[in-house]
Design a protein that fits this description.
227 residues; mainly alpha; 2 domains
Length: 227
């Protein structure tokens, strides 16, 4: 058993098994609360605790899955290409919406940090919470944050968004596919985009675009405001 745990194959198989179990649970329960990402993360943590396996040991194999993150992200460009006309038509809306969304996200952290008297280190780590991990972990150290805390904030933001997206869509933009996609991508980055693709192809394409534009807007705002 110890020999198996020490091999990179362990973390890889544990991650895949936890994910497939979580998908099965969601299909059985048919509710947004049974989100595969939440369930699979919880299962992995529980198993590591029960077997007393260190995070570093698990990460040796789990990192193999990270290799596929870049190709999976690139495939989002296919949905953007299929709806290129929408991008040309709504380019100003995309830029304005992403910029406003990034500004609101940063503002909520700054206001919340003041209200709850958060330490500067924690505040800086939370500022990039609404951009995708690839951008967030680069912004965080530049503004004095801790990348590991930033990754946690990004994950929490995405998971919260997945749970709230169906409600928000019904309340604020039921009949506007473009607005739905932009809102999802701007606020919940890549994790939310996976949900947008389930809702519709236009939503998925606009959400994919919003991930990039919101990331760029966040970088610009952070530099301009010197946070």
């Amino acid at each position: 058993m110890n020999l198996l745990v020490q091999t990179p194959l362990f973390g890889f198989l544990l991650t895949l098994t936890a994910y497939y179990v979580s998908v099965w649970v969601q299909n059985r329960l048919k509710t947004q609360l049974a989100n595969p990402l939440i369930i699979s993360v919880s299962l992995v943590i529980i198993i590591l605790k029960i077997l007393n396996i260190s995070l570093d040991t698990y990460a040796n194999g789990a990192a193999l899955i990270g290799f596929f993150l870049a190709p999976a992200t690139i495939t989002l460009g296919l949905s953007v290409y299929r709806h290129l006309e929408n991008l040309k038509r709504y380019w100003l809306v995309v830029l304005a919406g992403s910029t406003v969304g990034a500004a609101v996200s940063i503002s909520t952290i700054l206001i919340g940090a003041r209200i709850f008297s958060l330490e500067p280190l924690l505040r800086q780590s939370l500022i990039p919470k609404s951009v995708t991990n690839a951008i967030a972990i680069e912004i965080s150290p530049l503004i004095g944050g801790i990348p590991s805390l930033t990754v946690l904030a990004v994950l929490f933001t995405g998971l919260t968004g997945i749970l709230l997206i169906p409600l928000m869509v019904r309340l604020f933009c039921r009949d506007n596919e473009v607005a739905q996609g932009l809102a999802i991508g701007t606020s919940t980055h890549l994790i939310g985009t996976s949900k947008a693709l389930e809702i519709g192809s236009i939503q998925g394409a606009m959400s994919s675009i919003a991930i990039c534009t919101t990331g760029l807007a966040t970088v610009v705002l952070v530099l301009v405001l010197q946070l």
